[in-house]
Amino acid sequence: MSSTYTQIYIQVVFAVKGRHSLIHSDWEETLYRYITGIVKAKEQKLLAINGMPDHVHLFIGMKANCNLSELVREVKKASNGFIREQGFCRRFSWQEGFGAFSYGQSQVNDVIKYINNQKAHHRQTSFHTEYLELLKRFEIEYQKDRLFEWIE
User: Fold this and answer.
1) Quick count: other Cβ atoms within 10 Å of Cβ 89?
2) pTM of the model as a whole
3) Which residue, 19, 22, 79, 80, shows the most beta carbons closer than 10 Å to its own?
4) How much of the chain is in helix, strand and coil states, percent to nearest 5?
5) For the chain, what is the domain count?
6) For residue 68, what are the domain limits?
7) For 120-139, how does the pLDDT look when each residue is reduced to its tens digit (9 = 90+)?
8) 31-70 core/surface letters (b: 16 or more CB in 10 A; e: else)
9) CA distances, 24 to each of 28, 32, 37, 53 (Å)
């Protein structure tokens, strides 16, 4: 076979360190455009991006040669620097780790709607509950003490 043809759909979720609500509505769109540029520069397709002041969801159409961990590391590192350089937040940083969840072609539109509707969704469901539900739905084993840092 001379070529490889794939379409892999991954939802990525990561949080602000300490789960502090530092992403402000007046600059979140600028941040999302910046992250979109990073994903595109890595030759991946960003299908949706949205979040809340304490976390971000990305939905990516990935090529088979993409290393997801490296992509997320680059997004977090570059966007962290961008936030500081722009003066949006001087003490900003992302938490270590991320969640990644795979979907099939038939689920793409539903996932895009879900991500685009984050603000309304979180009026009814906390991020903590949402994230635990994702882990359960995808049957991902986890250590409670290794989850995102939950501020009390």
Assistant:
1) 16
2) 0.89
3) 79
4) 45, 20, 35
5) 1
6) 8-146
7) 988 888 888 888 888 888 88
8) bbebbeebbeebebebbbbbbbebbbbbbbbbeeebebee
9) 6, 12, 20, 6
